[in-house]
Specification:
By secondary structure, this protein is mainly α. 30% of the residues are buried.
Amino acid sequence: MDNFSAVFQNHILIVALVACVTAQLLKIPIDLIRYQKTSIRSLFSAGGMPSAHSALVGALATGVGQAKGWDSSEFAIACLFAVIVMYDAAGVRQAAGKQARILNQIIDDMFQEKEFSEERLKELLGHTPIQVFVGLSLGIAIAFFANGPLI
């Protein structure tokens, strides 16, 4: 049981989760400004500005670099993990979202007059490169802020 409580004392983990939650919470006012409407659904959905995945892995890698050293193996692992997650968010998942949009349009066109019983595919899956960059920047900033002055 002591090991379980130690998880909640892991500073790097907590900072990374705070960065992720902060990015998700920022989606509400950003959507309000951008679309003049807000939805609580954006708190629980993938995609949108900023990328919560990028904020999480950015804060994680930064925290590891601060704690273990920028030349450590641990930082190298965290950094490469972050690159893979961000590539996936902006590349693979973005492409899957575009494919879902096209398939939904095809289904709409084919079944205009008839009932189609299947659920629509989720279209907002990935991120644009700017959403990934803003999420990464947010995560790095939160990690530096959480660890105090650089000097």
